[in-house]
Amino acid sequence: MKKYYIYFLLLFIIPNALLLSKSFTDRPGTDGLSKSTAYELWDLADLLELRDSINSFGSLWHEGKHFKLMTNIDNVTQTIAGYPFRGYFHGNGKKIILSMFYDPLYPSHTLFTGGIGYNGVVDSLSVEGYIEIGYAGITNLVQAGYNSTGVISNCINNVTIVQNGVINPITGKLEGSVGGITYSNGGTISNCINNGDITGVDRIGGIAGENEGTIINCINTGNITATASGDNSIFSGVGGIVGTVANYCQSISNCVNIGSVVGQGFVGGIVGLANGYYPTAVTPITNCINYGYVRGINGVGGVLGYMFNPQGVNVSNCVNVGVVEGEEDTGSIVGKEGIGY
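Above: the chain's sequence. Below: its structure in token form.
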């Protein structure tokens, strides 16, 4: 009986050991052409193999292909994709635990440094750990917001993020955007949650540091703290959901902030600063609610800190329940309105 038991174990363990030892592109039943036949990522070696393949062959190699995380992966210290990621990365409800520390030679290194764009998708991924970096987030979308179709959905950030920022060679000031999900969104972020505390310089948001795309059905519970919002640039802000809304923003809707938001100028429970081009592009902030404590010096609002170009920004059906404290231009919904160019 013992002999047959050993044979059984060998029959089970050896094939599975061989399966796990294969390159993820060689495993039986996987071709990357659909979610059901996605390339399987089982460990850190698989993630690094994915990174090396993308870096060696560029975006065309993985465009349209599906990759699926099969287990939780710990101690990830390196980025997955240096090129814009144009495939499908299915988190599969698993988590990646990051440990990334600041390197001035690579200030923008995050999980997907090259961005998510051109029909790329990241979904159902949880991220934990610690990031100390210049620009930070789970991932970043390409910044050309009006032509990006990248999507991040059903992702959760539990990472504590400390942003050192980088010196702008033109202004000589410390700058840099940071967000729990992305530092710059030019596509669509939906049904995502940030639980991580974020400390940084300016352009900081629980979901996105900067936004030109669409953010819908997202929640922030993390505490957001900025040291120079509204100080380095008029286009800098800090918000529970988004720090700074840039031109041609599609929409921010159905979002909730619970965490505290603290900065200097242009501080908002949902958005720090919002700008739009009227009538070409009106930025809508709709159906959002803030429960968090909001504090700043100038331009402090329960929903929006600074409405730059008021005709180009539409705040509607939004509610603030949190305490708002500021020294000037402070409001329960909107703190400050200004006339742009």
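Residues 29-338 form a domain with the Pectate Lyase C-like fold (CATH 2.160.20.110).
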